[in-house]
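Subgroup meeting minutes
Present: P.N., E.W., G.H.
Scribe: E.W.

1. P.N. recapped why we're keeping a running log of single-chain structure predictions: easier to compare across weeks, and new members can see raw inputs and outputs side by side.
2. G.H. added today's entry (272 aa).
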Amino acid sequence: MQDTISKMIDQLPPLPETIIELEKFKQSKEQEPETLLKIIEKDPLLVAILLKLSNSALYGFRNSVDTASKALNLLGINFTLSFAFGYTIKQTLDTNLKAYGISSQKFMEISNISSILTNQWVSKIDFDLKEKLLLPVFLQDVGMFILSNLVNDEGKTDQFYADIKSGKDVVEVEMKFFGTTTSYVTAKIFRHWNLSDKLINMIEFVDDLDNCPDEYKYEVQILNVVKTACNILDPLDEKSIAKAIEKAKFFNLDSTLLSESIEKIQDRMLDK
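Output recorded in log:
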């Protein structure tokens, strides 16, 4: 199974020019908003999705956002960069996510909620840490596209989804069918594309905390908690929230701030 996954990754198309430009921007010492804006505006569909996102009640902006420049100003460089990365990579990998019971659009919605939760929660703990985590939290689940494609090819989509729908942990189901998990596959994809080592190392161990290097453990614990709260079937439902708060306490993370941040997002979701 691992060999099949590796072959599928080797057959992926090269990185889109947009991602190459975004990666160069991310690595640059001087990150001017105007430079990022020029990259984004080359893709009208990306701009349209960014504006739709910015006008969502989830972000709580009082006034209508009608230009990419205004969206960038309100969302911030790192948030906008992370969204552009996530959207473009999703477009590159886009396939049927029926095995997970979601659409590509739902996948992006859950990624957005995960990013908003990270922004709300972690910014109150450490602003620089929040900035560092926005990109991996947006991208950590893109390996689902490969795994979903694989289970579709094997004709086991209904069986896979039935296991997830029954309440079993998604990571356990992935291990049962593939012997690996979404986060590990995501890391392999990004390694294939020669993306940042730091990004890869943080994502690779989200589903395997026991083997996570100490250097990244704190960041990976936060990513794991956010992934738990924003699970693919029922993001921010009572069961997911309870499990996320339990994990936060176990990791000695600020569970009170986590709970308050979730309540804020839930209030905004009611206004949608």
